[in-house]
Design goal:
By secondary structure, this protein is an all-alpha fold. Helices cover about 70% and strands about 0% of the residues. Helix 7 crosses helix 8. It is built from eleven helices and no strands.
């Protein structure tokens, strides 16, 4: 769980620092960061890759006038190269224990509050989706599971053994949340209008077009999937469940 809480923000900060001007990351950029996180790319590798991409860009810019880098995807190839270079060195690195992670912003109360807030948002969305007959039952079921997990995190004696174990291991809890979100996304995808899904995929294709030469086919598919998933959740006003989206307040 090293750098777990700051993975997104540190990448955003480094990109903005190297670019030399404030530029909010796009939905495509966030989707790309998620693919790196899910692939287990270390934060250090991402930061090194961003630096390498900008170093190369700045060296070339001295010889020829070039457009400013406007997207994190420009750094994708350099990030993968940096990850490969660090893979051997990272092998065997000890992981911090759960107490270390909690002291870094994952205290029980904050995690439980995040889960309960997501459950409330899902219940509200279920009411709105019921009229459109778009997976309201999936929202209600997910909300119920989140409340069970929140109780386990708070140490409720009525929690199941499985939930209690997940509550003690943030990585296990994150895996559970990932499964719940994937099931919710699958239900939404199955119930959503065809026109909406086509529109979201077309949007993803337009956003990815400038970076296809910088990314491999597998990575492109992963980013497109993340992009469509994120936009579908936004379209139906549904919360992200991952602890990466926990409020920092």
């Amino acid at each position: 769980m090293l750098n777990y809480f700051n993975y997104f923000t540190e990448i955003e900060d480094r990109f903005q620092q190297r670019r030399g001007a404030l530029l909010l990351l796009s939905t495509l950029d966030w989707a790309l960061i998620e693919t790196w996180r899910e692939a287990g790319i270390p934060l250090d590798a991402v930061l090194r890759g961003i630096d390498a991409a900008f170093d190369k860009y700045e060296a070339r810019q001295k010889k020829a006038r070039m457009r400013r880098i406007n997207g994190l995807a420009w750094c994708a190839q350099a990030v993968m190269e940096a990850a490969e270079e660090l893979r051997e060195a990272a092998a065997g690195t000890a992981k911090p224990n759960s107490e270390d992670a909690r002291e870094s912003g994952f205290e029980r109360d904050r995690v439980a509050t995040h889960l309960e807030a997501a459950a409330v948002a899902l219940d509200a969305a279920a009411v709105a989706l019921d009229a459109a007959t778009v997976a309201p039952d999936a929202c209600k079921a997910t909300a119920a599971r989140l409340r069970d997990l929140a109780k386990a995190v708070r140490g409720d004696s009525g929690a199941t053994t499985q939930d209690a174990a997940a509550a003690q291991d943030l990585e296990a809890l994150e895996r559970t949340l990932t499964v719940l979100e994937e099931k919710l996304f699958a239900a939404l995808t199955a119930a959503a209008p065809e026109e909406l899904l086509v529109r979201l995929k077309e949007h993803a294709a337009r956003e990815l077009a400038p970076y296809r030469a910088k990314m491999g086919a597998v990575q492109l598919r992963q980013v497109e999937h993340q992009f469509v998933q994120k936009q579908l959740l936004v379209h139906y006003n549904l919360p992200r469940l991952s602890l990466f989206y926990m409020s920092q307040q």
